[in-house]
Amino acid sequence: MDKKTVDVGEVINSAKYFWMPFGITIMMMIIMLTDGFDLFLMGHVGNHLVTDWGISRASLGPINTAGLVGMAVGSVTLGWLGDRIGRKRSYITCLAFLCVGSVLCYMAAQAGTPETAEATISKMTIWRFVTGLGMGGVTPLATTLISEWTSARVRSVIVALVISSVPVGGSLAGFANSHVEEWQKMFLIGGLVPLALFICFGMLLPESPKYLSQRPDQHAKLAKLLNRLLGEKRFDGTENFVVQEEGKRSSNWLVMIWNSYFWRATLLIWIAFSFNSFVLYMYTNYLKVLLPEDRVPVEAAGTALSLFSIGAFFGSIGGAFLIRWFGSRWVGSGLAFIGVLGTAMLGVLLIGSGSPAVFSVLLFSFIVGMSINGMQAFMYAVSAHSYPTEIRGSAVGMAQTVSRIGAVLSPIVATAYFNMQPLPGVNLFFWFVAICAFITTLSFFLIPSHIPRYQGGAGAGAGSGH
User: What CATH number is associated with residue 263?
Assistant: First the structure.
């Protein structure tokens, strides 16, 4: 007797969002808040290192670079691991790296003094790399897992909601920084929370159904999960579970993303991701130190960074809702261009030597955050949509890894700028960043595999589509 063939994608698209996918979304959001806390942490404690240990702003470069390099390695390694051993196991590994790296950073920072600053920074650079491994894997795996658990009608909104939790976590880092007496404890918070999540979610988080469908020995487990999703016992594990997706297959994932079907999407995703990451981490790690203290009060600079983080929620979620009606090409490109204009306006505000209106600085910081942070959600959503299940974790992880080229360049470029003699006006630097944001806009618009507007069919799903 032939086995009944079941398309897992169709089952997921037919399921209600409440309650199982909703519970997974909540767990993803909590984990991403923690990831965002650790990601934005250095942007908030950097000034403390400069003032307490008497180091230069340029000395922050190695620590920031180490975290970004760790993210680059973690993205592709843990994304690849997610395609091999499962999204869940790889995700739990990310939490372990976050915990170990941040706790060891705390121990190093706690023992640091102005006299031992150089040695302490070297230690923190190593442990920030370890933290970066976890940060690098969390986002592509979250994108992959949530894409494979939610129906097409809500997928883009939910992915955006989950990704937008990262900058919201950055805002929590700003809140904690203003209330924690010892800045070193920021690292302790960033390590103990992932440990708690490691314990709590290790048992609760389910594996991806599309991942399980590719492993016949896991079909009994998949049947139980799909029954839970549907709220009825429809499958018994004897079915032939499959995932129907477009795209030319190749011998391995790295060859596949460059074959004749996927190469244009891969190239343009990498370019857009890299330039957006450069701009994002330039703001995340250096906005507070780029705003001159004699023209913008320190408190206002801190608020600007927090507003930059908060803006992500509005850009991500607002844009995701608009995707349903207009698709990702026009909505994402428009959002990206808003960041170009906002960054250019910050440069205009900082022309000359007078003090700009603080309200204007805060307003454009929020607008830019809405665009630049929001585009991260668009990049992950479009990347997940562009590749089939069997390579999705690897492909999205690789895209994020390549994007770290831009991220790693951000502290290098910032350090080079701060070391210039004489130092050019900061307005010129913001205009340079605006040009980079424009490259993001153009390359994102040209990606061939955009998410179409939702029409009630499976075409709006997370599978590949050109």
Answer: 1.20.1250.20
